[in-house]
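Entry 14. Structure prediction run on the chain below.
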Amino acid sequence: MSIILRAPATRSAPELILRAWRDDDRDALLAAYQDPVLRQWTRLPVTTTVEADRWLARMRQGWRDGDQFSFAVLEPDPGIGERLVANVVLKRVTPGRPDAEVGYWTAAPARGRGVAGRALDAVSRWAFARFADGGLSRLELLHQVDNPASCRVAEKTGFRFQEVLPAQPPFPRDGHRHVRRADADG
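Output returned:
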């Protein structure tokens, strides 16, 4: 499936391009995962080419199965063309089920620049439009309670805090559930 989403440029940031992950993203993926902060918040480490290849294969499989849609988020870079700045995923998409989940991570050089929120908003709008006929009306964003940056991204992109969830493996700490509803996108 060849879907390309765009998050418009702002006065201080260029347009973001969101597309399915490709095999040639391996080096950029490995570079992003060198960041200890990213590894702290993600469940599956990507530290070797074998792990990167497995990760990319899982992303492709999600698209083929139609239940998980992971987007590489790219920013134009005059020196190299495009630079990987984030990942946003829509997961647990099931026809007839009203809710699905979103998740994301941001590469270290892109943090604090609004990349996560802009990319998350683009995927959320796409999800509500694309899966409305299948009944999708609610997206959930989950994060651990000690991740205030994710809380800020959720709130800024229309995901309202709903509740604290008890710790559940593989996550060692309690979490927050934030929700964005399709009818709020008007």
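The mean pLDDT is 93.
Filed with the rest of this week's runs.
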